[in-house]
Amino acid sequence: MARDGVQMYWFSQLAARDGKGFDELMPEYLAMTAEAGFANVETGLTYCATDESTQAFADRLKRAGLGLAGLYSGGALHAEHAASAVQAILDQAARAKAIGCPGVTCNPDPIGREKTDAELATQASALNDVGAGLAELGLFFGIHTHAPEMSHNAREFRHNLDCTGPTVGLCADFHWMYRGGGDPYALTEQYAGRIVSTHLRNSVEAVWAEGFCTGDLDYGRIKAALDEAGYEGPLTVEIAWEPRTPDTRPPLQTLRMSREYLREAFGV
User: Fold this and answer.
1) Helices H, strands E: what count in the chain?
2) How far apart are CA 5 and CA 265, in angstroms?
3) pLDDT class of 1 with cuts at 50, 70, 90
4) Closest of 151, 259, 149, 245 to residue 205, by C-alpha
5) H/E segment holding residue 196
6) 141 near 134, Cβ under 8 Å?
């Protein structure tokens, strides 16, 4: 299976910029992704919320000639009703498997403050339940992170991994490790054996770059750590723009340049 992919978050930003809906433009974005030379995409697991939505999504992928690098979910896994969030992920994942999805990436919902020890314990139990359920389906499960989980020496990030079992992996989003104040190289080396998926982004002088390119993060060091661990999973480019990000090229050109840098950086 081809390892290269694109996380579709950036396309939702493009749609918003143009005053249009992401779902309305998804067929166009999928075709553009394929034209740029990518083989896979990652988007929301909720596209597999029902049998009907799953089939419609599968039809879109087929028309574009694309596969899936995985699908992304949130979930209130820290709360009293965590069991219902776990079941929703597993139900959607079962449908996703039927259309070729290899696994699920999950960023447990942030709550605007640090989670308590009790909330983190509930979350770890729920993550174990998701991981076990996905393993039974033959799917990988990777925890994703944004900045909140990286505060206080990556307290939540580390708890999510240190207090869960082997069916719970890591979707390593190297730039969010960096943006959140962590050391992406040290964390990659420490948790390399848990990595089941990746999100690849870079910044230039601390501002998210227009596409995936050389910049603040040394992807040569990251590749070396992944190679040392024998990582062979998805390599998913996730472009994202913030207010000072340049906007100088048509989207197709940005995707093509990002695909070329992925080839240069990782040899895929």
Assistant:
1) 10, 10
2) 14
3) confident
4) 245
5) strand 195-200
6) yes
The DSSP code for 114 is P
- What are the chain's domains? 4-266 (3.20.20.150)
Taking 90 as the threshold, does the pLDDT of residue 23 lie above it? Answer: yes
Query: With left for phi above 0 and alpha for psi between -120 and 50, is residue 173 left, alpha or beta?
Result: beta
Report pLDDT digits (tens) over 103-161: 999 999 999 999 999 999 999 999 999 999 999 999 999 999 999 999 999 999 999 99
- In this structure, the strands spanning 195-200 and 169-173 are parallel
Instruction: Indicate the average pLDDT of the chain.
Output: 97
> Considering only CA atoms, which of 223, 258, 220 is closest in space to residue 237?
258
pLDDT of 206 over the 90 cut? yes
Residue 20 C-alpha from the chain's centroid: 24
